[in-house]
């Protein structure tokens, strides 16, 4: 096993990555330990992450975020307080992407398999489902234990792409309910207006797994 040099993080195995299951009345059989499954998943994700956008956002941490407006302070404090799902909304250019990236960078630091994907990129991936270069992004979106989707609601989503977006969000919602994985979303639309651009069934699930946080202020980009 890959883990022999390490101690088991969960104290379940002897560091070998194997545990023995003994069903009632049955014979013992070996099973992969939780620590081994996680380490395989993490290695696979490290490869996939090269395809994602977090590498361009490494500087967008909580420490480098400079709130300049009351709602920015509040958003910062709320997001900083706990790792969970957020729906971050407000006008363009007030630092939503920075805050979203900060939650992802924190989660990565906590060894949570995490990724940030911009929604236009995600939609392109879903539209071209199954094409070779889209597989990594789609896998990340489905399997990350923390997914941040930046800038939803910018484009109207219809047809096949909308169905595939529903499947993704529905899957993440079910996993949120069963084992507390998290998904965050940012948008310039308040949640009640999001259903003007996407299926209300998708909006319901997003609202069901995200705490709503409003962020306002002068645009960072036009300030200079
Ligand atoms: Zn173990």
Task: Walk me through this protein's architecture.
With 224 residues, the chain is of the alpha/beta class. The protein folds into 2 domains: 1-49, no CATH class; 53-223, Rossmann fold, CATH 3.40.50.300. Helices cover 44% and strands 15% of the residues. The chain has 9 helices and 7 strands; from the N terminus they run E-E-H-H-E-H-E-H-H-E-H-E-H-H-E-H. The chain has helices spanning 34-49, 70-81, 96-109, 119-127, 135-143, 159-179, 191-194, 200-209, 220-223, and strands at 18-21, 29-32, 86-89, 114-118, 146-152, 182-187, 211-214. A 5-stranded parallel beta sheet has the order 4-5-6-3-7, with helices on both faces. It has a two-stranded antiparallel sheet with strand order 1-2. A hairpin with a 7-residue loop joins strand 1 (18-21) and strand 2. Helix 4 (119-127) packs across helix 6 (159-179) and helix 6 (159-179) runs parallel beside helix 8 (200-209).
């Amino acid at each position: 096993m890959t883990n022999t040099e390490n101690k088991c993080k969960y104290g379940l195995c002897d560091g070998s990555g194997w545990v023995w299951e003994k069903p009632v009345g049955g014979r013992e059989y070996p099973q992969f330990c939780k620590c081994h499954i996680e380490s395989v998943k993490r290695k696979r994700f490290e490869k996939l992450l090269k395809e994602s956008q977090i590498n361009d956002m490494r500087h967008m941490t909580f420490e480098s975020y400079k709130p300049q407006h009351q709602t920015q302070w509040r958003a910062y404090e709320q997001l900083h307080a706990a790792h969970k799902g957020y729906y971050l909304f407000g006008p363009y250019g007030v630092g939503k992407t920075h805050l979203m990236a900060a939650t992802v960078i924190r989660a990565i630091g906590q060894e949570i398999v995490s990724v940030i994907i911009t929604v236009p990129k995600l939609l392109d991936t879903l539209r071209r489902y199954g094409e070779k270069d889209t597989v990594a992004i789609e896998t990340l979106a489905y399997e990350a234990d923390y997914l941040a989707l930046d800038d939803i609601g910018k484009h109207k989503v219809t047809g096949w792409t909308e169905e595939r977006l529903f499947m993704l969000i529905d899957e993440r919602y079910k996993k949120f309910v069963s084992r507390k994985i998290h998904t965050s979303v940012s948008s310039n639309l308040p949640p009640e207006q999001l259903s003007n651009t996407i299926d209300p069934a998708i909006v319901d699930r997003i609202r069901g797994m995200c705490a709503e946080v409003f962020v306002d202020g002068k645009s960072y980009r036009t300030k200079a």
